[in-house]
Design goal:
mainly alpha, Arc Repressor Mutant, subunit A, homodimer, elongated
């Protein structure tokens, strides 16, 4: 496969080896569907009836997936997660393309995790920093693993630090409220950090810029 | 003044021109003193009696400084703030030293602003992103202004973006919970971003590293 052409990667699946549990994928989708209800009413205010309605399910149908409202509200923090070993790097796809996909995936999914953290702060007794480390720990593993595929000479500690730097930018750019277009701003900051580390020693400038260009959405 | 020796800058005062209001400095100190009470009990749980006690004041004494508990709890977000014009850059101090002091000041003060944001989310009707932009907007101005003193050729837009990048790292590194030593981690990330932008075009590597070295605390 040539690395010289932009590849769309329709099936970017770093979680491929997550021991085939389609029910977990379904639970994640249900959380996304119910997110507007949780956002509007908060943990305590959201009723099972409203949540089920948003998921096009009956309350009994929702209980098939989650044992309780608390389990539902904190699902993104507690679902099976990837670690360094279980992250699937696809050998048939340019690692740089996988890195781009991961950046875009992390930007899309950030609001889900921020919401789950807010809900958890109402009902989960674990300290905030423990919950946050759980929420972002998976990102650290997946970013770190893919960074080491992009640059096989990168040391583990370097990859971890770069992953943490990228995730801090991701979380912080949304947090400060300073960017009118936060998603575009964080994307360009993450790319700037990567570019300065990888170009030209690991990747030539032209290939980096071409591969990392945003999808014309 | 030589720029070649490490200067301690005992009086780093970017807020010098904030129109001499010692009462505002006193209010800021009172918020810091009451912070542990607000942290433990939250906005609603903290009583005026407890807050005044933490400030070594009577409740009446506390009301001399703040008209209400809400005014007290959200003071860091509402106090007079610096903007681009009012930031004082000291002509007698190496701008790089002022930048280092600002980095350390921002790391020290972050918990104060995060607390004020949490308290405000209970009582201030403005949306979270508006409050956060207020909290971090002053940092954007002060960082931007001092960055342009470090590199007089830097464009305004570049300085704003670099300030936002630094503040995103600051807020995000604390948020993700991934760093066991978050303060040291964010400091080294901020310096890395600055170093890659300023060295060697604006500042030689040796001077940068010597000036930005952490205080032996």
């Amino acid at each position: 496969m040539s690395h010289d052409e932009r590849e769309p990667t329709p099936r970017f699946e770093p979680w491929k080896r997550r021991a085939g549990r389609p029910i977990d994928q379904r639970r994640h989708e249900l959380f996304e569907q119910a997110a507007p209800v949780f956002r509007r009413h908060g943990y305590r205010g959201a009723t099972i009836k409203q949540l089920a309605h948003a998921c096009h399910l009956s309350p009994a149908g929702l209980y098939h997936y989650f044992g309780s409202k608390q389990e539902f509200a904190t699902y993104p923090l507690n679902r099976p997660r990837l670690d360094w070993e279980s992250t699937h790097v696809d050998r048939n796809v340019d690692p740089l393309v996988q890195l781009r996909e991961l950046i875009d995936l992390s930007i899309r999914e950030l609001p889900t995790y921020v919401l789950a953290l807010q809900l958890a702060s109402e009902v989960d007794l674990r300290p905030d920093h423990v919950l946050r480390a759980r929420a972002f720990g998976e990102g650290e593993s997946v970013f770190g693993r893919i960074l080491m595929s992009v640059d096989p000479a990168m040391k583990h500690g370097t990859a971890v630090e770069m992953a943490r730097h990228l995730l801090a930018l991701l979380a912080g750019s949304a947090f400060t409220g300073l960017d009118p277009a936060a998603n575009a701003a964080v994307r360009s900051r993450m790319l700037e950090v990567l570019r300065r580390s990888l170009v030209p020693a690991v990747i030539d400038a032209d290939r980096f810029d071409r591969t990392m260009a945003a999808d014309p959405a």
